[in-house]
Write a structure and sequence with these properties.
With 315 residues, the protein is of the alpha/beta class. The chain has two domains: 2-155, Thiamin diphosphate (ThDP)-binding fold, Pyr/PP domains (Rossmann fold, 3-Layer(aba) Sandwich), CATH 3.40.50.970; 177-304, Rossmann fold (3-Layer(aba) Sandwich). It contains twelve helices and twelve strands. The strands form two sheets. The chain has a seven-stranded mixed sheet. A five-stranded mixed sheet has the order 7-9-8-11-12, sandwiched between helices. Helix 1 packs parallel to helix 7, helix 3 runs parallel beside helix 5 (80-88) and helix 8 packs across helix 12. The N and C termini lie far apart (43 Å).
Length: 315
């Protein structure tokens, strides 16, 4: 996903001489081509993320189209004050590209987890938040980002993710993408969990349940109109995300549902706030916290059974 995104930016840079690339002592090999072709537009700031954001703001105020790259905890958490003051409040044209969403860097431990980033960025004014689910979406958002003249935070995984889309996705910033349609329950998901949501769809289908899966690739601005419409059409709604249970997609959807007096079943699936002391790669950690299709499907079935519902009419 990461390589796919920056390949598009590299291609755009051939004809767009206002693209500037900043990194904080990362991206070895990733930016070799860009650095060699456009040395005057590439800056390795070193292990100084706050300085990187300040430099990006200055370049943006000079009319440049700036992309900043780092691992998410260092890009977002370490430089949050600078992002808040220099970028968000001034509504500058800076794209923050973070690698390692969720547990992607699982073996590196807590310092490299990105589990609260969406909550932090949702709180900032003027900040758009995009979470592609696969390399093809990453490529499309790379193209769209160039002409988007406001701050964007794009949360990527790493590399070698499988494509969810079999053909070029028709995506629009701020509009959810309906992947499957069913009459019984709706699942809103984001980023790496889209593949899990689709697997949940397949499992629940074996139980005779029709499931709509919606890809909320843009967390902010949120597609509130779609959520409102689904709140009228479905009596059970679930969210799945690789983020803390608070502050991310589930919280954003819950806000819309509550403000529209939703009275149906609603449950969030994500990472609990009380992380355990475990060691393992990303897949191990996701399974440890139940973020897999089997566990989520079983939980959804239990929720529906406890509410004495029937899939079709929830009588």
């Amino acid at each position: 996903m990461r390589d796919s995104f920056f390949k598009v930016i590299d291609d755009l840079s051939r004809e767009k001489d206002d693209i500037y690339m900043l990194t904080a002592d990362l991206g070895f090999g990733l930016f070799d081509n860009f650095r060699n072709k456009y040395p005057e537009r590439f800056y390795d700031i070193g292990v100084a993320e706050a300085n990187m954001i300040g430099i990006a703001a200055g370049l943006a105020l000079s009319g440049k189209n700036v992309y900043c790259y780092s691992i998410i905890p260092f890009l977002i958490m370490r430089a949050y004050e600078q992002i808040r003051i220099d970028i968000a409040y001034q509504n500058l044209n800076v794209k923050l590209i973070g690698a390692g969403g969720g547990f992607t860097y699982g073996l590196e431990g807590f310092t490299h987890f990105a589990l609260e980033d969406l909550a932090l960025m949702r709180a900032l004014p003027n900040m758009t938040i995009i979470v592609p689910c696969d390399p093809s979406e990453a490529q499309e958002f790379a193209r769209l980002s160039y002409d988007y003249n406001s701050p964007i935070y794009i949360r990527l995984g790493r590399n070698n993710e499988a494509n969810i889309h079999q053909q070029k996705p028709n995506i629009e910033i701020g509009k959810g993408l309906i992947l499957t349609r069913g009459n019984d329950v709706a699942i809103f998901s984001i980023g790496s969990m889209i593949s899990v949501a689709l697997d949940v769809h397949d499992i629940l289908a074996k139980h005779g349940m029709g499931v709509s899966v919606v890809n909320i690739h843009t967390l902010k601005p949120l597609d509130e109109a779609l959520i409102k419409r689904y709140s009228d059409e479905y009596n059970a709604i679930f969210t799945i995300e690789e983020h803390y249970i608070s502050g991310g997609l589930g919280s954003a959807v819950a806000e819309v549902l509550v403000e529209n007096s939703y009275s149906g079943i609603f449950k969030r699936f994500g990472i609990p706030l009380n992380l355990k002391k475990t060691i393992g790669n990303a897949e191990f950690r996701r399974n440890f916290y139940g973020l897999n299709a089997k566990n989520i499907s079983e939980d959804i079935l239990k929720v529906l059974e406890n509410k004495n519902t029937k899939y079709g009419n929830f009588a």
